[in-house]
Amino acid sequence: MKKTTLIFLLLVFFAGTLTTRAQKINVKRIDPPSWWTGMKDSHLQLMVYGNNISKTTPQLNYPGVILHDVIHVESPNYLFLDLILKPEVKPGTFLVLFKKGKRTVVKVQYTLNKKDDNPKLHNGFDVSDAIYLLMPDRFANGNPANDNMPGMLDKVNLKNPNGRHGGDIQGIMDHLDYIKKLGFTAIWSTPLLEDNMPKVSYHGYAITDYYKIDPRFGTNKQYKEMVQMMHKKGLKIIMDMVFNHCGTDYFWKNDLPTHDWYNQWPKFTRSNYHAGVVSDPHASNYDYRHMVRGWFDQTMADLNQDNPLVANYLIQNSIWWIEYAGLDGVRQDTYPYPYKDFMAKWMKRLLKEYPNFNVVGEVWMDYPASIAYWLQNKRNKDGYQSHLTNVFDFPLTFAIHKAFNENEGWNTGLARLYEVLSQDFVYSNPMNLGIFADNHDMSRIFTILHKNLNSWKMAMTFLATTRGFPEMFYGTEILMTGDKGQGDGFIRKDFPGGWPGDSINAFTPQGRTPEQNEAFNFLSKLLNWRKNHPVVQYGKLTHYIVESGVYVYFREYKGEKVMVILNRNNKPVTLGLSRFAKDLNGYKTGRTVMEEKSLDNLNSIKLKASSPLIVVLKK
Ligand code: CA
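^ thats the input. predicted complex w/ calcium ion below
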């Protein structure tokens, strides 16, 4: 045999082996990885992924589980199994067999757990809550051992504002008492799921595995433990979910089940970010397509929720986390960017399974009407019904930024707050709005307020006492600064004291400056008072037109009444109260909440320069 022929034959032999190996049928993953008995919806769709798995015929034999349908897609490496779980199905583990003729080529175990029927679970949040928003990579590094993990591309680099800094779930667990002491009742953490993108992965918004906590944050088990610990302490958990896009490095990146799994464009096409297009009665189809089908970013693949398999994948994933971890609520990212009919379907399904659950949507728009469109029970002209229980009140945020910076005028300064609240008639229920001065995507409020502590105190008082439920960004309590103009990393700085070896530990009074302690104590007192006073949570709001730089409003609930006054004058003011006679009728004295001073008459009140005042009225 000639040498070349031998080499040729050997090559054919090896190539043959390789082909055989590559074609070996297997199962690499099944999503969802487990499910529950006792769910209100009896459907379960399994995505089975593995080499040539579509060349097999699946079979299962478990009482109460019916393999209703098997869906083949374009890629040979997927099968979608539609199961029906009958009401009598018992928890347990069964085998799914993948057969070729009579031969079983792969078998996989699948587990159905018993749904936790504890009535204390999944009860959502409401105006009685105050939410602490934190970004786990930047809050506290409780476990330096997981900073860099095998297979995770983006390595810790504390010097890079856009790099990973090592914060994690252990860091959150270590500071739950700190958050609770501040008076917060719930934590919204930005995404903790795996984001294994090579760069700028710390924020977690380019998820590469919807079923797995990023190992640099911890494990699924540890996340669940954190939630249980929070519940023991009386804190709620709000999970950040992202349905519009996933990271471009998701496991399916080179092997999409169908070509339309993502919204495809001939070349990269960005969303126009004009969320209002979705509700605009005059919008062009061109703009609508670019808004909803355009990609949020190059690293964020735009999922096509019009494909029912994609829709099911996302819906089941959210239910899986609610059930697995015992979530109280969800914050949904970029709410208007996925298909709105899909989002309504998702909400309907969640509320069917968990009638008391809450989801707060990020609808980043300037006008109350644009926000109102997305809120549950809104009667929209186009007939759209979102079923979304809560939205964040961005218009009020922008009003806050102006209110405490601008000169007072007929329609400037505090009048901005009055004007936005006067639009509340557009909402099905304005009490379902999440209110905030900043979040992880904006300059920090103390920076926006030019580091004016008095303005900050007024803004915090307003958030704690007007309608809606407040959200505050970690570090607000220690007056952290950050300018969005410098880049996102600068508004998401590490919390001082969160890292081993930090020279300053602002988690303790000793580590805070006198000004930081003043702010911390102010906010802690304010929120702890709010927590125990339903009048500022559920109370009816009556406000008076801003006059001479003073904004006065009342909250009233079940015989309790509170008067709130914001004075933006940079000098003390004696405020005559006759204008508010109707609201003060029957009340003789009052007691201030923060200063704990008694007011022996309600004819007039002395207001300190540039400051808030909360008065509990007494008969
Ligand atoms: Ca760590």
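The two ends are 111 Å apart (CA to CA).
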